[in-house]
Structure formats: structure tokens, C-alpha cells
Q: What sequence folds into this?
């Protein structure tokens, strides 16, 4: 009987953690940009790989976003061209650059990162993201 109570307790704690992480997710849009990825606003000519992104004013915070990592998940289309762009996965990206005013997305992902979560033919997708 004691094992069953502990097991139920673990399930309840796991559910609470899951619901908290889902509740913390913000929503926005994502676009993508293509190489070269250097220089960047945060790191100059330092190579940070390809799982990277540029932050729009929504999260930029006058360079405070530099180096932050965000988990990004596609939640839907923004246009009729690709009605089901999402692949059902998420990706973790590091903010290395700034997407200036007029940026078409909350987060501008590298093409490689965008391709992990959605069909690049969509161009722009709806996302959930959290740090």
C-alpha cells in the first residue's frame, strides 16, 4: 500500500511540474534566416553553431537576451500556403543576434532550427517558447 501512495505522489508532482512548464510558455511567431550567421550582434565573428536565433524587440531587452536559450515549438500555421507546417518536435536555440524593428517574427530562427520543427516552405509559423 505504501508503494502505491508514493507512486501516486510522484505522478501528482510530475503533473504539477508539467503544467507549470506549459503555463510558462509564451506564444508568438517564428521566421528563419539563412547563412552566413556571423557576424552577430551578440558575439561578433564567434561561431555559435546552427541551433541559434535572433531575438525581436519582444525578447531582446537591449542585449539582455544574448546567450539565453529558448525551447521553441511550432503550434500552427500563419498562412494558407502550408496548412500543417509543424513536425511535432521542439528545438532549443541560443540567442546570438538581433532581429531589428520590422522583424516578421518574435524569434528569427536559423534555417536549420526552423527545419527541425516545421516545414521551411511555410516561412512563418505560430510558436510556443520558453526559456
A:
Amino acid at each position: 500500500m505504501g508503494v502505491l501512495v508514493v507512486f501516486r505522489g510522484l505522478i501528482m508532482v510530475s503533473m504539477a511540474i508539467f503544467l507549470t512548464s506549459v503555463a510558462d510558455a509564451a506564444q508568438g511567431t517564428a521566421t528563419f534566416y539563412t547563412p552566413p550567421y556571423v557576424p552577430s550582434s551578440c558575439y561578433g565573428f564567434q561561431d555559435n553553431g546552427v541551433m541559434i536565433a535572433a531575438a525581436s524587440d519582444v525578447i531582446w531587452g537591449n542585449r539582455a537576451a544574448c546567450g539565453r536559450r529558448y525551447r521553441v515549438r511550432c503550434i500552427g500555421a500563419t498562412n494558407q500556403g502550408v496548412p500543417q507546417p509543424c513536425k511535432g518536435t521542439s528545438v532549443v536555440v541560443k540567442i546570438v543576434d538581433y532581429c531589428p524593428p520590422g522583424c516578421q517574427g518574435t524569434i528569427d530562427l536559423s534555417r536549420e532550427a526552423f527545419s527541425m520543427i516545421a516545414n521551411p516552405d511555410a516561412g512563418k509559423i505560430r510558436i510556443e517558447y520558453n526559456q
Notes: The beta strands are 26-33, 52-55, 69-77, 90-98, 107-110, 125-130. DSSP finds three helices and six strands in the chain.
